Amino acid sequence: MPEQTPVRRILLIDADAFFVAVARLVDPEGAGRAPLLLVGGTAEGRGVVCSASYEARQHGVRSAMPMSRALRLCPGATCVPVPGKACRQKHKEIRAVLERFAPVVQSASIDEWYADLGGTESIYAGASLQTIAHRMRDVVLEETKLRVSIGGGTSKLIAKLAAEGAKPRPENDADGVRVVEPGSEIAFMRELVLADIPGIGPKTTARLAERGLRSVSDVLDRDEAALVRLVGPGDAGWLGRRVRGVDESVVDDREPARSISRDETFPTDIHDDLLLEGELTELVGRAAGDLRGADLRARTVTVRIRDKDFTTRQASRTVDDPLESDRAIFVVARDLLHKLRRARRVPARLLGVALSGFGDPLIRQLSLFDASRPLETERDRIVSRTMDAVRKKFGRDAIAPGRKH
Amino acid sequence: MRFTISREKLQEGLAAVAASIPAKTTLPVLANILIETSDKGIRLSGTDLDIAVSTEVAADVETVGAITVPAKKLSEIARELPPSPVKIAASGEQRITLDCGRSHFKILGLPRDEFPAFPSIRFSESWRIRSGDLQKLISHTSFAVSTEESRPILNGVLWELKPDVMRMVATNGHRLAKMELPIKATGAPSADLIVPPKALEQIRRLFPADEELEIARGENHLGFRSPFTAVYTRLIEGPYPPYDQVIPKDNDRVAIADKVALTSALKRMSVIASDQTHRIRLSFNSGMLRFSVQTPDLGEATDELALRYTGDQLDIGFNASYLLEILRYMPTDEVRFTFKAPERAATVQPEGWNDSATYLCLVMPLRLVD
Predict the structure, then answer these.
(1) How far is residue B82's CA from residue A80's CA, in Å, rounded to a whole number?
(2) Contact by Cβ (8 Å): A83, A76
(3) Could B241 and A372 be called an inter-chain contact, meaning their C-beta atoms sit closer than 8 Å?
(4) Which of A320, A366, A370, A375 to mutate to test the interface with B (most CBs of B within 10 A)?
């Protein structure tokens, strides 16, 4: 007899209006008293909305909307910057609570965590996933003052979709937890439209709708051959699994590959190339400082620019040997900035630098041609580390590159 | 301009040129294909300003002329047409009509004058080379070029033409591939050319192996042509690094391994190797190669392979993906490695290859920095 695989017990814990809630905790007298609250920018109308309170959302404000537009929709709203440090702290606190309940916890984003409760049945003496989720929710609220919604099921996909339906909203009677029982996945999926499913974005949604596929039931009610005719064999298989809630990915508690980034939304748009280079020097200096602070080196440098009309463009380069010094990273980033500016030269409202592809600094790929000048020399590394040491002692502004403007 | 062409000939011509059309461009005419009537039919041309491809296909020309139309749309239409003769006519400078069976299309284009001129190359002084020979060199070397923008010279394949031999070399600074082939005296002067691999890929794709190509050089362009098709490419300028100096002459440790077995073992080890460095460690002993790999946060693995090895014991680290790539292009069942020391270049060659060509790859090891 084949061994029966145990039923998986996966939860997705999603913090409700995380940035808004944290902003209110940090500033109870200001943000805490403002029903119409926008987090993520300044009242001068720069930046984008990172998160908006439920009340502000009723005016049509959405995440990622330019702050200026949000303020037109919702005049009189209070704007506060993202409380970055507090958000990271709260993220850790919530994670710590979840780790007491589940053996494996994975941070999916700043405000979402997966927890795998597989193998804990006897510890919880047969308590249902529903009961455990409610208990988790209560403890998180008690210890962190933050509300979470929890979805549960036999896969990460089902848990994620169930969490959407768990959020208490004026129009539903959800109580913050929704668990899809094993065996009832298909019935649950039938409640959804295809656009609800992660991995099916606006373009795919439109393409499927052209073929008469809008809801999950539209797909489930067709046999495999009909689906292959409509969307081709590759997509038919994938879509068929997706609409049944099949997702074999595991809850992985290793931290995802990280990147270190810094960006800046300018008070007024910048068109001058030299000024942009000056800003880039500053951003590279900060990102590279963070990189060295974490004892890392990066092989991939990405420069992101947002034009005045909100077109966001980016360019990346991966080099052979990992870099850590301001100068070497700046040389790569400057080329990328030039490339982006050559392609489209309009005033920029945001500039960003991201460093990723962290290699092991101890391993070095040898070169055939020694004469080739390396991007980064030992001198570059020493200069950067010396600047770090000066800043640590005397503050960030104690020393700066001479070529800022 | 007015002509009739079979659906197949139209598709064939468009397929040849389509790969030279850039996917994205700031110059709208580059997304177009140039259609010109010629003596034998029509000539279709496309370019991304680095590479230009032009091909002639048979058609019945009623009236002569030229126009440019969007390449992607014309290819899509040609693919969907019913199997009937296709009639194409220009109406004015910026529009064509296309009729096939009962289907009728009007497509907006751009005037011929907006299409960039092809580089002027005189084919009177040309090399004549069999396309198959060229393709053999390309397919064994061009994989090794660099994709980094920091050293543009390494983004090209060095093609050395001598009176009786030609050679291609490509490297990204960490690994290198070199192949040379004796050729019949060409009469044209010797030359060192640095050619973008994208252009070489077109040569490989467009010309049948037994065709003789005429190849000539313009100021900073190179042209390849056969009776019907021509490819032009920009050349990369500058001195190519002195590759000959880095080919080791005194490697005294030699290993001969079965290519398939070695490839399988490397693939197994790669699963555990770091995504960043692909680092694996090889330990050669007489008769045995031991593989090991350790990746923090992931795990470790070991494997063994019997092989013929002469020399002192050697421990050496490599990027497994470089080795796997080279093995993929080795034309024989057995491959021959030579080494000197853990931080010196290793060579890889086909073992027992009965061919007029000679083929050599180099790969630099990975080192642990203290």
Answers:
(1) 63
(2) no
(3) yes
(4) A366
Q: Among A344, A340, A338, A335, which residue's Cα sits nearest to residue B26? A: A344
For residue B274, list chain A residues with Cβ-Cβ distance below 8 A.
359-360, 363
| Preferred mutation among B24, B148, B150, B158 to probe A, highest tally of A CBs within 10 A | B150
Question: Is the CATH number 3.10.150.10 carried by domain B127-244?
Answer: yes
Which among B176, B366, B367 has CB closest to A368?
Answer: B176
Which pair of structure tokens corresponds to residue A204?
């795919």
Distance of residue B368 Cα from the nearest chain A Cα, in angstroms = 5
Q: What is the pLDDT of residues B154-175, one digit of tens each?
A: 999 999 999 889 999 999 999 9
Please report the pLDDT score of residue A405 as a whole number: 38
Between B188 and A219, the higher pLDDT residue: A219
Cα separation of A250 and A244, whole Å?
Answer: 17
A-contacting residues in B 237-266 (Cβ below 8 Å): 241-243, 246
**Of A362, A365, A375, which has the smallest distance from its Cβ to B174's Cβ?**
A365
CATH architecture assigned to A28-82: 3-Layer(aba) Sandwich (3.40)
Chain B interface, best mutation among A253, A368, A370, by max B CB count within 10 A = A368
Element (H, E) at B71: helix B71-80
Chain A interface with B: residues with Cβ < 8 Å: 254, 299, 317-320, 335, 343, 357-369, 371-372, 375
Going by C-alpha positions, the residue among A360, A366, A349 that lies closest to residue A324 is: A360
Nearest CA to A102 among A67, A150, A62, A70? A150
Residue of A nearest to B342 (CA): A366
Tell me the nearest-neighbour CA distance from B172 into chain A, angstroms.
9
Q: Which one is the CATH code of B2-114: 2.60.120.10, 3.30.530.20, 3.10.150.10, 3.90.190.20?
A: 3.10.150.10
| Homologous superfamily of the A10-16+87-182 domain (CATH) | Reverse transcriptase/Diguanylate cyclase domain (3.30.70.270)
Domain B247-363: CATH superfamily is DNA Polymerase III, subunit A, domain 2 (3.10.150.10)
pLDDT for position A5 = 63
Measure CB to CB from residue B364 to each of A299, A318, A366 and give the nearest one. Answer: A366
The yes-or-no verdict on residue A1 having pLDDT over 50 is no
Domain parsing of chain B, residue ranges: 2-114, 127-244, 247-363
Q: CATH number for the A190-242 domain, one of 3.90.1150.10, 1.10.150.20, 3.40.1280.10, 1.10.530.10?
A: 1.10.150.20
Return the exposure string of B116-141: e unless at least 16 CB atoms fall within 10 Å of the residue's CB, then b: eebbebeeeebbebbbebbbbbbebb
Q: In this complex, do A319 and B368 lie within 8 Å of one another by their Cβ atoms?
A: no
Positions of A annotated as catalytic residues are 112
Q: What is the pLDDT of residues B83-137, one digit of tens each?
A: 999 999 998 888 999 999 999 999 999 999 999 998 889 888 889 999 999 999 9
C-alpha to C-alpha distance for B17 and B235, rounded to whole angstroms: 20
**ipTM confidence:** 0.81
